[in-house]
């Protein structure tokens, strides 16, 4: 096969960070080429160079054998290179269709925008993707997952010969991932070359032909996906093998109930949700996209108003009306959308970690103990292996996965009794993921009550002591965790639409 | 009482189209109109209504220019002095050089477009924050207006038809009962045109896109900078029209005028529901905002409220109007 | 029958001078049993705002209107409207270039400023450098007071050199900073003229802050601060118009015109130069205000 | 020529500490100072330097207040008229009621804090956009100042020590060679205090965090609204100090003053590198910004540049200074 892309000896430095060290990458027509590496390994940076967003400090790029300079997104588009960005780059005030065709709006005579055509074109793309989506919806009103779908649709609309997908499934669940894979296979058969970046190891085997691994900005090696064990790839990524632990379910029958939710209701998104969470327990929440898990968490946390229902913490009823009340009651919530709800992107790592816990570092006259804060921040940077030149680096400049770790550190520092983690490992590499799993387990062992909302079933199964499944705003069942429960059982409840059968609630 | 099915249908269609929201946006304005009509018999005379509209015309046109810029997430502090500058340019062409009326009109609009182009270039190409770039422009233009005019008003006595631009009445010559001054006509035509530009053209689309997420626009391969310059230039051209309106109304280019007008224009935009953060806004809202301000001022004057209290009441009502509008939106979801 | 209603549209509102005019108008209103309102724009540049005020005043169907035009030409269409509606217009403070006003109650600012120039020349010994702080570069009063002073110096006192003219919008703080800068740039400056109350107080402040005890300061208008400065010697003297008289005469003429009585076309309300020695003279004390 | 190792070491330490950046931030200011010193022998006199500092004091204090609000991503248009309102309140307490000086000082600062509290509540609790809430406040306070004072200046003749607040010299009484007016001293002390508050206290942290991502702050369980109100109240209190400074300098509360001062204050903030988008900024920058503006004005006046040209040059230099600062930062990365 001929190489459509050859990148060689690519160097890129940011202030304080040597992001790419003589990195290389090649891509053949009609292949899916996975690009792997830990958080901050330089995957996104390399692909941003290929799509004209960053200029390399040095190195050469050949497209179809021709040496090229790609000096902007337009130039990349001209070369047939399209990219789905890791951090969503959408215009929230515009509609779905307007976002997809920005810069390429269909016009009628006189250069007037043809809105009907625009919406039809967008509809056609979603029809091919088999995703139900209203092209007239404002992007602001969509969930992260749907926004991700818009990004994918936008990239597809270019009909690029080379398509870069930077963690396209980070916000998708299994069903949606399957749809995406079907699309990828079809593109492949049409001869499109695809670069696929993901931290979900199982996907690599399912979809990719070759795997290139990077570490610390440098090229490690390229292997064929079919005949390389996942363990080998992981070892190439992290430089060592990872152990596989099964979930050990503790006996919690004697543990006190930490959080008790009864009849929680908010519109159509949360309908009469009731459950108990014990101290020391990890309760997983599974469901399809839009099942209402995030809404449940936000309502419990007071981020959205509750229409009905009671919440009791440690047996005491609590009237939670705002996140402040929730945190005061000992509840913490890590949002699924770190960019909008989790991080102050313009501030440094230290300030972000401190955001929930400032009063603890404040003396009587309101003075902040910065030295102590710095020490604590350094601690978390070490334990969570956050890749940053210092705790004074702006969070905006960290790689996606490392940003996610900062949000986790923020809530760990707050030390709440009840922690709700919404998609905690979104965009986090395998090594760090294992680290976070261990951390959650040790938190639970220390008596914290934990809810984990995750769209990755293996993750839910790997972590949860019990698994709550939601469908269309209802809690359709709570299953025991561990190897006894199968993915099929969860899926059955996740698509359990019959409202009459409320008895399934445990 | 039950509504007929047809009426309900129409109502729900109206609801679905979001049109009822826009009608409700008039609420504060209508409350004000009703109040002043009841409070003073002099308020609801044709001549006074026309006076209010006439008083809105200049601020309204400036506010339209400001709306464009604000939707992109920028701000334009130079609208007031740019208006004056354009008026002075018209004065130079028509009075100093004695050229014919069309040249004066073209010169004023061209001068505005050019200055907008400069501001836009400073902002888009040299990455100077809009506040600073247009503050600088505001001062430069204020000074230049004085320099060019010799710190004296320029009168348009040699161009007898000049005052007609604003004070003549095209409508009145067809429908004598409705002597709407041309200035008001120009305001509303301009509002329609720019509304159309915003919703139907590429430029309008990029206005919203830039204000919503400039980086995303850039990443999409759009020449964001060029469009931004174009938007500022268009806004500048509109200030040129405002310059013609005010000069024609005063039959003179007053070189010292214009400072402070930028705040009024921006206030009209924000009262009209356009967010200073960019990405959303409408010309209809801006026109309502501008009308609220002039109805308020006129009404208080008609009621002979003492001037110091006029200011207090204006402040209170601006806050109340925006608050009411926000409650309405929140309820509408 | 309601009371006669007479709106006065002035050039300003907040400055002491205009408040004194208002006081005179209110006094006449009380004596003659008419209703008077008084309005003016924030700055003397806002010609169009004044036009809007005039339009609103006309909508109230007044018996007569008092009008101090910022730009007489700009107001002509509305004044014609008033004439057609049979509403007599009385010009005050400065004239209107038109025959519509039935009377004009004004001060001759050119002559008043020329008097200030004469006094200044006399006090600095007929030669030396002087500077001006004026409130406005484009308004009628600003231009007249500047030109009246400057032209008189040129004609009658050629030895006196005018080294700088700057404008401080009548804002006391800004005028202070301007006067200080001028005094720093011209350390041998002998005298300064402040063309309205705010400008004059600015000059006085600058003189005090820089300790320039020899500087001759001549002001314009009155007000408590200016009177105090004259009493303690920081200001040599000042021109005063008769703002209370202007307001009073305007309303009086308006009432007469509204009733169809004859009014004299031009009412000169006069001006005076006053200093420490004359400040308590009855004819001066009568026209000063706090 | 080669540098000694020690010097290189010091230089690189300076570089590493980021201190050289801060020194470079003075660049435009220093260029201006050097230029005017060469252009006029009168510029670099002690008395003139003190005059410049004195001229900076009011705008500097207002700009400090504006900085706080702007870092939270808001804007405060009411700083100028709030200053005047506080001055009038001091006048009421000291002159109308004849109370002792400390009561006047406390009343002015308390009035400022209270008005800031109201603005903050409108913004944080009623969710009125800062532009509108403070525009309303600006008008309300302008009117109230006139109403309370009876549209007349209030003189402080009964409180002979009042002018000393601004024009006396505490430093001068210890070091006669350095008669720095108290107004200037107050500006610099306040700048230090607020710098410290911004960098070392919880309130300061929340200022930046609110400006960076208000929703994230709220979802961190912080009572974002309460902190926002506190920040606006603090800014209001600082405007109270500005009110005392200007009243003491003019030995009177001038009720008509203050409009337009908000733009100067915001300009100083933005020239100083604080972003109107919120989340970043510094008091040092603001002070430099305020100094740039007053040096420029003073220098041009000393050179007797015609006023219309002064305005033009000021506009040009504001743009140039910000552009130079941005180039510097971009190079520093
Ligand atoms: N604009 C920037 N300025 C400074 N540092 C940057 C910038 N962009 C990326 N970096 C740094 O470069 C390194 C590589 O980042 P990159 O985003 O390429 O990582 P990644 O492999 O995509 O990681 P992830 O899996 O977490 O997305 C990281 O250390 C990151 O902090
Ligand atoms: N701000 C919003 N505006 C409109 N609709 C919303 C909003 N947030 C959520 N929704 C809708 O509410 C439903 C429930 O969303 P939610 O995010 O709670 O689901 P979830 O189970 O957490 O799914 P996900 O896997 O996407 O996190 C979805 O259909 C979503 O589209
Ligand atoms: Mg990445
Ligand atoms: Mg979710």
TrEMBL record, chain A:
UniProtKB keywords: ATP-binding, Cell membrane, Membrane, Nucleotide-binding, Repeat, Sugar transport, Translocase, Transport
GO cellular component terms listed in the entry, alphabetical order: plasma membrane
One MF term in the entry's GO annotations: ATP hydrolysis activity
Gene3D superfamilies attached to this UniProt entry: P-loop containing nucleotide triphosphate hydrolases (3.40.50.300)
InterPro entries associated with the record: AAA+_ATPase, ABC_carbohydrate_import_ATPase, ABC_transporter-like_ATP-bd, ABC_transporter-like_CS, P-loop_NTPase
Membrane topology: Peripheral membrane protein
Subcellular locations according to the entry: Cell membrane
Protein name, per record: Monosaccharide-transporting ATPase
UniProtKB/TrEMBL annotation, chains B, D:
InterPro entries linked to this entry: ABC_transp_permease (IPR001851)
Annotated TM spans: 23-43, 49-70, 77-97, 103-124, 131-150, 170-198, 229-250, 256-276, 283-303, 309-327
Membrane-protein topology: Multi-pass membrane protein
A single MF term (Gene Ontology): transmembrane transporter activity
Compartments, record wording: Cell membrane
Pfam families named among the record's database cross-references: BPD_transp_2
GTP-binding among keywords: no
GO cellular component: plasma membrane
Keywords attached to this entry: Cell membrane, Membrane, Transmembrane, Transmembrane helix
Protein name: Ribose ABC transporter permease
Protein's organism: Gemmobacter aquaticus
């Amino acid at each position: 096969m001929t190489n459509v892309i050859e990148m060689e000896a690519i160097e890129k430095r940011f202030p304080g960070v040597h992001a790419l060290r003589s990195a290389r990458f090649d891509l053949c027509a009609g292949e899916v080429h996975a690009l792997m590496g830990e958080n901050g390994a330089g995957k996104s940076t390399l692909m941003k160079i290929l799509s004209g967003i960053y200029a390399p400090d040095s190195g050469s790029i050949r497209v179809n054998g021709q040496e090229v300079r790609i000096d902007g997104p337009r130039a990349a588009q001209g070369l047939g290179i399209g990219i789905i960005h890791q951090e969503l780059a959408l215009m929230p005030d515009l509609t779905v269709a307007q976002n997809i065709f920005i810069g390429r709006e269909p016009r009628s005579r006189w250069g007037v925008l043809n809105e009907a055509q625009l919406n039809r074109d967008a509809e056609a793309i979603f029809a091919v993707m088999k995703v139900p989506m209203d092209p007239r919806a404002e992007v602001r009103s969509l969930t992260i997952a749907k926004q991700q779908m818009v990004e994918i649709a936008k990239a597809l609309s270019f009909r690029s010969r080379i398509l870069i997908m930077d963690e396209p499934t980070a916000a998708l669940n299994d069903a949606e991932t399957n749809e995406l894979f079907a699309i990828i296979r079809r593109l492949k058969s049409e001869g499109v070359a695809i670069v696929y970046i993901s931290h979900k190891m199982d996907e690599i085997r399912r979809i990719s032909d070759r795997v290139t691994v990077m570490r610390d900005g440098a090229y490690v090696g390229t292997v064929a996906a079919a005949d390389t064990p996942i363990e080998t790839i992981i070892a190439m990524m992290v430089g060592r093998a990872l152990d596989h632990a099964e979930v050990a379910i503790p006996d919690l029958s004697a543990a006190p109930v930490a959080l008790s939710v009864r009849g929680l209701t908010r519109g159509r998104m949360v309908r009469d949700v009731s459950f108990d969470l014990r101290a020391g327990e990890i309760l997983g929440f599974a469901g399809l996209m839009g099942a209402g898990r995030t809404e449940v968490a936000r309502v419990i946390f007071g981020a959205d108003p509750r229409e009905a229902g009671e919440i009791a913490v440690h047996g005491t009823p609590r009237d939670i009306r705002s996140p402040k009340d929730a945190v005061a009651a000992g509840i913490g919530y890590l949002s699924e959308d770190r960019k909008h709800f989790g991080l102050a992107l313009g501030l440094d790592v230290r300030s972000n970690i401190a955001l929930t816990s400032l009063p603890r570092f404040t003396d009587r006259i309101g003075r902040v103990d910065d030295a102590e804060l710095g020490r604590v921040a350094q601690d978390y940077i070490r334990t969570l292996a956050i890749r940053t030149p210092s705790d004074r680096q702006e969070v905006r400049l960290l790689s996606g996965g490392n940003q996610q770790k900062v949000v986790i550190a923020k809530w760990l520092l707050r030390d709440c009794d009840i922690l709700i983690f919404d998609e905690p490992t979104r965009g986090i590499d395998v090594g760090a993921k294992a680290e976070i799993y261990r951390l959650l387990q040790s938190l639970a062992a220390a008596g914290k009550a934990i809810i984990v909302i995750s769209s990755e079933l293996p993750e839910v199964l790997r972590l949860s002591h019990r698994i709550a499944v939601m469908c269309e705003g209802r809690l359709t069942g709570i299953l025991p965790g561990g190897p006894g429960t199968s993915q099929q059982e969860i899926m059955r409840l996740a698509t359990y639409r019959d409202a009459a059968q409320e008895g399934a609630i445990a | 009482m039950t509504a007929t099915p047809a009426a309900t249908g129409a109502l729900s269609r109206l609801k679905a189209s979001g049109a009822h929201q826009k009608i409700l946006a008039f609420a504060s304005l209508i409350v004000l109109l009703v109040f002043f009509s009841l409070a003073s018999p002099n308020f609801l005379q044709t001549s006074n209504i026309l006076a209010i509209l006439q008083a809105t015309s200049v601020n309204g046109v400036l506010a339209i220019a400001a709306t464009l810029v604000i939707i992109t997430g920028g701000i334009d502090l130079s609208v007031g002095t740019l208006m004056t500058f354009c008026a002075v340019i018209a004065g130079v062409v028509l009075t100093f050089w004695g050229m014919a009326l069309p040249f004066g009109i073209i010169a004023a609009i061209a001068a505005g477009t050019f200055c907008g182009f400069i501001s836009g270039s400073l902002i888009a190409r040299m990455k100077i924050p809009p506040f600073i770039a247009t503050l600088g422009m505001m001062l430069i233009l204020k000074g230049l207006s004085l320099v060019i005019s010799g710190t004296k008003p320029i009168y348009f006595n040699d161009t007898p038809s000049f005052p007609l631009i604003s004070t003549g009445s095209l409508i009145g010559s067809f429908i004598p009962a409705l002597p709407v001054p041309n200035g008001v006509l120009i305001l509303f035509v301009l509002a329609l045109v720019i509304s159309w530009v915003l919703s139907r053209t590429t430029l309008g689309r990029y206005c919203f896109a830039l204000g919503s997420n400039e980086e995303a626009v850039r990443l999409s391969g759009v020449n964001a900078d060029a469009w931004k310059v174009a938007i500022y230039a268009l806004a500048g051209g509109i200030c040129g029209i405002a310059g013609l309106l005010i000069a024609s109304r005063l039959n003179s280019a007053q070189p010292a005028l214009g400072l402070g007008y930028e705040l009024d224009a921006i206030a009209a935009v924000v009262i009209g529901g356009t967010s200073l953060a960019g990405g959303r806004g409408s010309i209809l809202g801006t026109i309502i905002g501008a009308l609220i301000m002039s109805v308020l001022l006129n009404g208080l004057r008609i009621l002979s409220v003492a001037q110091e209290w006029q200011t207090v009441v204006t402040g209170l009502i601006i806050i109340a109007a925006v608050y009411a509008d926000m409650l309405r939106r929140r309820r509408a979801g | 029958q309601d009371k006669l209603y007479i709106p006065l549209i002035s050039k300003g509102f907040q400055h002491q001078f205009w408040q004194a005019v208002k006081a005179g108008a209110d006094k006449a209103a009380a004596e003659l049993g008419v209703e008077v309102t008084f309005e003016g724009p924030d700055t003397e540049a806002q010609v169009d705002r004044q036009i809007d005020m005039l339009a609103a005043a006309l909508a109230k169907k007044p018996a007569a209107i008092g009008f101090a035009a910022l730009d007489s030409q700009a107001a002509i269409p509305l004044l014609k409207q008033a004439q057609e509606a049979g509403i007599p217009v009385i010009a005050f403070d400065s004239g209107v270039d038109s025959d519509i006003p039935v009377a004009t109650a004004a001060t001759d600012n050119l002559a008043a400023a020329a008097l200030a120039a004469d006094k200044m020349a006399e006090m600095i010994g007929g030669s030396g450098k002087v500077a001006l702080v004026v409130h406005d570069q484009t308004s009628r009063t600003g231009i007249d007071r500047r030109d009246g002073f400057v032209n008189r110096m040129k004609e009658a006192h050629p030895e006196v050199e005018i080294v700088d003219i700057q404008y401080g919008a009548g804002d006391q703080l800004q005028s202070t900073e301007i006067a200080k800068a001028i005094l720093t740039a011209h350390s041998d400056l002998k005298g300064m003229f402040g063309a309205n109350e705010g400008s004059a107080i600015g000059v006085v402040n600058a003189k005090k802050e820089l300790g320039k005890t020899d500087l001759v300061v001549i002001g314009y208008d009155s007000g408590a601060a200016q009177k105090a400065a004259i009493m303690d010697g920081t200001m040599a003297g000042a021109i005063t118009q008769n703002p209370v008289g202007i307001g009073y005469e305007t309303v009086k003429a308006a009432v007469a015109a509204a009733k169809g009585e004859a009014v004299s076309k031009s009412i000169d309300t006069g001006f005076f130069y006053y200093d420490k020695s004359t400040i308590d003279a009855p004819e001066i004390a009568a026209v000063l205000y706090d």
